[in-house]
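Objective 1b of the project was to move from sequence-level analysis to a structural picture of ligand recognition. The entry below was assembled by the postdoctoral researcher (A.K.) and checked by the PI before modelling. It contains the amino acid sequence of the target and the SMILES of the bound compound, adenosine-5'-triphosphate.
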Amino acid sequence: MAQIQMLSKETVDKIAAGEVVERPSSVVKELLENAIDAGATAITVEIKEGGISFIRITDNGCGIEKEQIPLAFMRHATSKIRTAEDLSHIVSLGFRGEALSSIAAVSRMELMTKTRDTLTGSRYLIEGGAEVETEEIGAPEGTTVIVRNLFFNTPVRKKFLKHPQTEGGYISDLMEHMAMSNPQISFKYMNNGQLRFHTSGNGNLQEIIYRIYGKDVARALVPVDVSGQGIRMHGFLGKPEINRANRNFEIYFINGRFVKSSLISKAIEEGYRKYVMQHKFPFAVLHFEIHSGEIDVNVHPSKMEVRFTNRTKLYDFIEMQIRETLHSIELIPEIILEESREKKEDRRLLMPEHVPEPFETARFCQTGFSPAVEKKDTPKSVAEESIYHVPEEEEPFFVDNRKTQPPSSPGNTSPYDVQKEDAVTIPEPERNIPGLLAENPIQMDLFEEKMLTKDAKREYRIMGQVFDTYWLVVFHDKLFIIDQHAAHEKVKFERLMAQLEEKKVQSQMLNPPIIVTLSGNEESVYREYTDYFAQMGFEIEAFGGSEFAIRGVPAELYGCSEDRLFTELLDELSEGPIKGAPNVIRQRIATMACKAAVKGNMAFDAPGIEALLNELLTLEDPYHCPHGRPTIISMSKYELEKKFKRIVS
Ligand SMILES: Nc1ncnc2c1ncn2[C@@H]1O[C@H](COP(=O)(O)OP(=O)(O)OP(=O)(O)O)[C@@H](O)[C@H]1O
Ligand SMILES: [Mg+2]
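Corresponding predicted holo structure:
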């Protein structure tokens, strides 16, 4: 690597300044970027207690010359750029010369490094930014950095850290992204002494996706490799069947850098538009190669944002290429990976011959240096609160119009309103538009004189179903329209809640169990809510690495696709934490579970709907699904007659 030099003030002033080290995962990210920039082909990351007490990163890259080490820890010293000019065509991941100095300022740091040209290596200790010790040691080529007791000297920042498990989850997520960003580098990742994954470094991105997301995802991938207008896009598009509930699975890299870009996300989603339902997002892992002069990464200190010189060109390219690739999907043979899933061994452990072993052991033997003497001055209880935003309370979907407006507004609405979904989901402000009110079907509510009582059962007639969803029921002089999904969801939810209340949730065992692969983030969400899942009747067991076996599900939810149910639940939970008393949390999870279980599922026949209706009507509030949406709306004969101008009032 080039020599490390101090940047001029003029250059420094042009670099996006700000906090470099926010949490353990940012430390790992910076150190990994350094290892990658150093040309490493094998990198080992080891963390303890979510990275708060211990992070060790070992690479087999070019190393740092002995005389250059103190300089590497100085602010604005870098070997990667020289002048402000270079900022316009950055080809390395780092360029600010800030990471090492920022990390050293807030931790106890140790660096061991050796370049190819020297016989011995160096060991350098720096604590809170002050050099403590430097010595010559025997060491293999490459660099090891150990970061201990992060934020030991900045208690306020330490207080903002989440629970170690959550912090560890962020690092796991980062590791997965890093492995996908550089399939040609072998990454080994250990968390609390456990090997989490080890990639081969053979350049096969599909294999890494398989190891991270499991068989079902890997089988539903469409390879893409297209170039044009100075852009190359290659990687994998998920088939629509593996669409997800949030954007976390739109993963892309620009010139090997994991970035977040609303432009690229939008273009991907637009390309998928025909294939993705509302509130669903595609799965995609894409690499973009764009000339370094056409992008600017010097936007934000996190180096995760990018600006593009030609936004429209990039957007159109991505959108069109994705659309066309998906359009020709039938022409693409299914990708089947060779490895048998029967092998119970951890799929993540792939140890091809050329994967270099971490060389700490050898080094410690040579030097007598004792690894990882962890000082126990990290308080165990860091802030418990979560990083996620608290979701806003769902707005109630319906108000009882009859109470606010007499049924007498002019008949200027379409009679087809009855069939529009809007009829049941009018947002608050629109609800009071005259003409939309009285003549629309009326949401049943608890105050309604209970017309659909169990006793009245014999008197109502089920007329049939429309739009595969709504059932028409006539009782006396009223037409009732029942949303079968909402009704079904409601019934399932009430059954589940009743069982939860009585602590008698029935599990339905699955034989054979279903194995799911969780991403780092999903796993940490699952661990956060493990007890609730158990209370609800899920029986889930760690299955090695990031795999989990679903052995049992709540009996009420049996029969839907259980693995989808479980991952959808995790996706929803990862959107934001649920706060409140345990029963509130339980209720929210049960609601989500029922929604996920019911979605798109079940075609009811007339006897089926009758049974459902009967059960629905035994409930205290049969008129709303657990999400507050109506299950039943009604329209009276009187209102119909008014619509047809038989009655003029
Ligand atoms: N693992 C490593 N192997 C070899 N050299 C390294 C390694 N880590 C750091 N260096 C050297 O130390 C210098 C300072 O690293 P540092 O991460 O602080 O800055 P940078 O990578 O240049 O820029 P940035 O702040 O954007 O990361 C680097 O420019 C590089 O020359
Ligand atoms: Mg760096």
